[in-house]
Amino acid sequence: MAIRKFNKLPQTAVLKQILKRCSSLGRSGGEQEGLPVDVPKGHFAVYVGENRSRFIVPISYLRHPEFQSLLRRAEEEFGFDHDMGLTIPCEEVVFRSLTSMLR
């Protein structure tokens, strides 16, 4: 089994990287290249579960330790340097339950 070595960035750098790739934060009026058109300002898209179901979540979730834990798992399993979108490695039902508690 291959061992992947990830560049361990400070948490703030990782969060900025995520927002840059997945967020509409800072979108000014028109569509910016590479950003999803259907994601409202202040939100970002994640893909969850075996079927990679798409969820739009507010950036405020990034403050919650539970969500940060999911992001660390995502970094360990998939890394953030790919074109697949931000993929969260957990079951969809677990993700729905977690996000309902964060609201």
Automatic annotation (TrEMBL):
GO terms for biological process: response to auxin. Pfam families: Auxin_inducible. Belongs to the ARG7 family. This is Auxin-responsive protein SAUR50-like. The gene is LOC120107731.
